[in-house]
């Protein structure tokens, strides 16, 4: 399990130690921990874990809020861990983007089994649709995530690491509005603290490279008062131009 990274979030050190020990005994080596919501968000941004186990009751914010924030940049499975057991609590967790709901007290071996089953499903999906996350092709440009290349009108176009990461994030989340603060958190890995203009400058540079008319952008549009939204008809590698799972 050396290729899998897990993030465990709980303010009770005994629970973190128990889960870490049990998961390591089952072959998981890369295990990160956090005891508060802000810390969990920073770790998730920096390390992009493959699966997250998240306590609902944290000292600085609810796990539901942490989950909602994480869903701005990750599709990694999130398991809620909590003593709350009402249907309303469970519905709240699922509506915030959670994938499973584990009640305390728990059997750590059951959690290990759930983790393994979820990761197995994820591996099968990635194998079946492995082309989906690597190439984003549109009428005027193509972005190849695995090689870090951007092609505009068939010609490779240089761009900075931050520009590439920002454009990749937008391509992965089409038709969703993101504030400049949200984009800064994802690309720079920290709160913006007044540096939102940095995002604006990078968006401007990206537009100059991919937009036929940067003054009237077609792909990265400004939603006044809210932020930016990526709009583009993606091309897929089959005859009818549609993804095979539609």
TrEMBL record:
GO cellular component: cytosol; protein-DNA complex
CDD domains (UniProt xref): REC_OmpR, trans_reg_C
Molecular functions (GO terms): phosphorelay response regulator activity; transcription cis-regulatory region binding
DNA-binding region in chain numbering: 133-232
Domain OmpR/PhoB-type intervals: 133-232
Short name of one Pfam family: Trans_reg_C
Response regulatory domain mapped to chain residues: 5-119
PROSITE patterns according to UniProt: OMPR_PHOB, RESPONSE_REGULATORY
Record keywords: DNA-binding, Phosphoprotein, Transcription, Transcription regulation, Two-component regulatory system
InterPro entries per UniProt: CheY-like_superfamily, OmpR/PhoB-type_DNA-bd, Sig_transdc_resp-reg_C-effctor, Sig_transdc_resp-reg_receiver, WalR-like, WH-like_DNA-bd_sf
Cell compartment(s), UniProt: Cytoplasm
One BP term from GO: regulation of DNA-templated transcription
Residues annotated with 4-aspartylphosphate modification: 55
Domain of life the protein comes from: Bacteria
Name of the protein: Response regulator transcription factor
Species annotation: Kroppenstedtia pulmonis
């Amino acid at each position: 399990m050396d290729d899998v990274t897990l993030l465990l979030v709980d303010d009770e050190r005994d629970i973190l130690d128990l889960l870490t020990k049990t998961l390591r005994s089952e072959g998981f080596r890369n295990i990160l921990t956090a005891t508060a919501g802000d810390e969990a968000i920073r770790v998730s941004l920096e390390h992009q874990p493959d699966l997250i186990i998240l306590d609902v009751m944290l000292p600085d914010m609810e796990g539901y809020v942490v989950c909602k924030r994480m869903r701005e940049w990750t599709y990694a499975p999130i398991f809620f861990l909590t003593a709350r057991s009402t249907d309303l609590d469970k519905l709240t967790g699922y509506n915030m983007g959670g994938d499973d709901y584990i009640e305390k007290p728990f059997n750590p071996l059951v959690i290990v089994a759930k983790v393994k089953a979820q990761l197995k499903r994820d591996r099968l999906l990635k194998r079946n649709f492995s082309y989906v996350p690597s190439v984003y092709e549109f009428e005027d440009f193509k972005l190849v995530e695995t090689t870090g290349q951007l092609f505009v009108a068939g010609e490779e176009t240089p761009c900075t690491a931050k520009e590439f990461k920002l454009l990749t994030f937008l391509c992965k989340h089409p038709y969703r509005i993101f504030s400049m603060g949200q984009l800064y958190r994802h690309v720079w890995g920290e709160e913006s603290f007044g540096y939102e203009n940095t995002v604006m400058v990078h968006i401007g540079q990206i537009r100059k490279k991919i937009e036929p008319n940067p003054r009237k952008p077609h792909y990265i549009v400004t939603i006044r008062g809210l932020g930016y939204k990526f709009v583009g008809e993606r091309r897929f590698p089959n005859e009818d131009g549609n993804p095979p799972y539609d």
